[in-house]
Amino acid sequence: MWSSLVMILLLIVVFWLFFIRPQSKKAKEQQQFREALKKGDNVVTIGGFHGKITEVKEHTVMVSLAPGMEVEIEKSALVQNASQVGGQ
To answer: Would the pTM of this model clear 0.85, i.e. be above it?
Structure first.
């Protein structure tokens, strides 16, 4: 009986180490990225649109996608551009 209890606990620890912990770390990094957004930053939406931030609001940002074309986008719809991560 003790061996099966130890195996279950070991399985829970392994699950936490390989799945829960990395996911929460990534979510924290995304939150920090969204809080640090400022005017002039280049961003990518989850839909794949690239643009430049022209205004930052509480929950949204205004993004210029092309000259004369600005859209309001939720901060949660922005992702950290993988090419910018290494260059920062």
So the answer is: no
